[in-house]
Amino acid sequence: MTTLPAWVFIIYYLFLLITLGTALFRLIRRNGKAYSAIAFLAALTIPVIALLNSIGRLEGMNEGQHFISSLQAGALWAVYVLTAFFYLLVWWGLVFWKRKTKQVAVPQ
Q: pLDDT tens for residues 84-102?
């Protein structure tokens, strides 16, 4: 079986681990509790679902090719993983945007 390069997995799991930690931190501090809870659950379930569904991929296909192929076929797991990743990107955008607006706000 072919597989993606190690650096892809390092970035992938690092992103998910940082997201888990940040979402947990924001849950404890009660900053955007519902959004952070969804981000935490998404970061937990994405790798599990992707891994379980990548185990049965065809010979000669790497994880990325299998994901794209499953997405084109309309597989529910691939749609979930794509949607959850998009949610995490939007969530990170909101985290940084809120942080930036807090820093810019000047008390008068």
A: 999 999 999 999 887 767 6
Please choose, from the candidates 53, 55, 46, 38, the residue with its C-alpha nearest in 3D space to the C-alpha of residue 81.
Answer: 46
**End-to-end CA separation in angstroms for the chain:** 62
Taking the C-alpha atoms of residue 48 and residue 59, their distance in angstroms, rounded to an integer, is: 21
CA pair distance 68, 61, nearest whole angstrom: 11
Q: Is the dihedral of CA 6, 7, 13, 14 positive or negative?
A: positive
| Helix residue spans in 1-108 (DSSP H) | 6-28, 33-54, 63-73, 76-104
| Domain-wise residue ranges, the chain | 6-101
This prediction's pTM: 0.83
Residue type, 47: P
